[in-house]
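no rush on this but wanted to send it before i forget. theres a chain ive been looking at and ive put its sequence and its fold in C-alpha cell form underneath. please have a look and point out which stretches look like helix strand or loop to you. thanks a lot i owe you, the record is right below:
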Amino acid sequence: MAVNVPGVIVMVVFYLLVLGTGIWASFKSRRKQKESGATGMEMVLLGNRSINVVVGVFTMTATWVGGGFITGTVEMVYTPSMGLTWTLVLLIAYSTTFVLGGLVFAKPMRDRNFVTMLDPFQIKYGNVMTTALSLVSLFIDVIWVPTTLMGLGGTMSVVLDLPFSLCIWISAAVVITYTLMGGLYSVAYTDVIQLVLIFCSLWVCVPFALTNPSTLDISQTLMNNTLNAPWIGQLEMKNIWIMIDDFLNFALGGLACQVVFQRILSASSSTTAKISCFSAAFFILVFGVPLILLGAAASSTDWNQTTYGSPSPYERGEAAIVLPITLQHLTPTFISIIGIGCVAAAAMSSGDSALLSAASVFTSNIYKNILRPQASQREIPWVIRASVVVVGVVGTSLTYFRNSVIVFWFFGSEMGYIIVFPQLFCVLFFNISNGYGAIMGVLVALMLKLLSGDPLLGLESVLHFPGCTLEDGVYVQYAPVKTISMLSSFAAILLFSYLASVLFNKGVLPEKWDVYKVKAQHSPVPLSPVGGVTEEDEGKTEDQNLCEVS
C-alpha cells in the first residue's frame, strides 16, 4: 500500500492550523502578562487565572477527550465481552468526575489560589509527603503522554500508511512546540480548535460507516447474535462488583489528576470553574455518542464483504485499532482522512494537558519549594519549558513499549484512586488529618494493593477477599479490591491522624518526636468534615514561600 498523499497534505494543513493557533495564543499570553504584571509562573501554568467560561468549557472537556478516549471507546463497544454496557459505565464515570469536581472541589481549590492540587499537602504536611505524592502525579502524567499518542500513531499508520514512530514524533513535536511557546494560553486556545474538529469529524464519519453496504442495521445487531456477538456486551452477575469497582476507580480516580485541577485553578473565578466542570460532564457524554455508533458499525459489519476481508479484526487480534480499520474500509478515502484529523486533534488536546500538568507539579512543588526556594521569576519559566521538553521526549519514547505502557497506565490510574484521592479529600476537608495519618494511609493502600494481587503486574493474590476463586491455576478477585484499598487508606489517614494528635497533645509522646508539629495544630476534634484546609502556622520559611506562590 502506497502512502496516502492527499491524507498527508490534509494532516500537514491541520498541524499548521493547530500550531498557528498555539503561536497566536502565545503572543496573546505575553501581551496579557505585560498588561497585568503577572508572574511568569502564574502566566505560563495558569494563564493568570483569567480563563473565561467559554474557553474553560472547551479546555476542560479536551483534557479527557484524547486519543486514548477516542480509539478506546470504539474498541470497547466493538469488543464482545464489553460492548455498550461497559462503555456506558466508563462514560458515566468520566462524567461523574467532572460533576464531583464542580460540586466538591472547585470552590475550595480555586478560592485558595493554589498553583497545583499538591499545594495543600505542602502547606500542611511539608516537603517529604508532598514529594512522594508529586512523584505519583508525575508518573500518571508521563504515562498519559504515550497512551494518548499511541491511538494517533495506530490510526495514522493504518490509514496514511506512514511509519508508526514518524506519526508519533511529528505530533509530539507540534504539541511540545506550542506548549513551550504559550503555556496554558496556547493549550487552552488550541483545545477550542481541536475540540471543534473532533466533534465535526466524528459526525461526518458516522453516516458513511452506518450506511456502508457491508454493515447491518445496528438496532438489529444490538441484542442479536448475527455476524458477530451482540454489541450490547456481556455482564455476568459475578462481575457486578468489578463493574462497580471500575466505575468508582474512573470516577474518583480522575479527581487525583492535576490536569483537571489545572483547569479549575486557571478559571477566572470559582463560579467559572464550576460551570466548566458541569459543562464538561455533559459534553463527555455527547462526544461518546458518535464513538458508540462507530463501534456498533464495526460490530455489525460483514468484514468478508469489505476490502479488509475475513477474519474480522477481533479474530485477528486487531480490536485495538478497529477505529482506523473502520475508517479505512467503511468510509470513502476523503472521509477517512477527516477521521484521522479527529484522532490527531484528540491526541494533541490531551497530550498538551499532560505535558503542562507534569511541568506544573515539578516546577511548583519540587523545584520552587524544595530544590531552589530562592529561584527567581526569570528562572521559573525556563524550568517550566525544560520540564515540558523532558516529559514530552520521555513520554513519546515510551510509545516503543506499547504493551508495558498500557500496563503502567492502568497501574498509575489505580495509584491515583487508592492513594492520591483519599489523601486530597482528607487534607481539604478534615482538620484532623496530619502527616502521620497520611503516611499510614499510603502504606495501607500499597499493602492491600500488593497483597490483593494484580494479573497485569504478575502479582499473585495473597489476601483473598470474598468471592476470590481459583481459575486456571490463578486466583481471581471478584470483590471491589480497588475500592476496599481506597476506603482502607481513607480510614487509616483519619484514624492514625487522630491517634497521633491525641498522643502528642496529651503528652504521652514527647514533643521532640513530633516532626509534623501536630501539637501546634488544633486540639483533637471529632472526625467531621470542615469547609477547608487548616493551615499550620509553624513559622517555616518553606511554608511561607509556598503561601506566597499560591
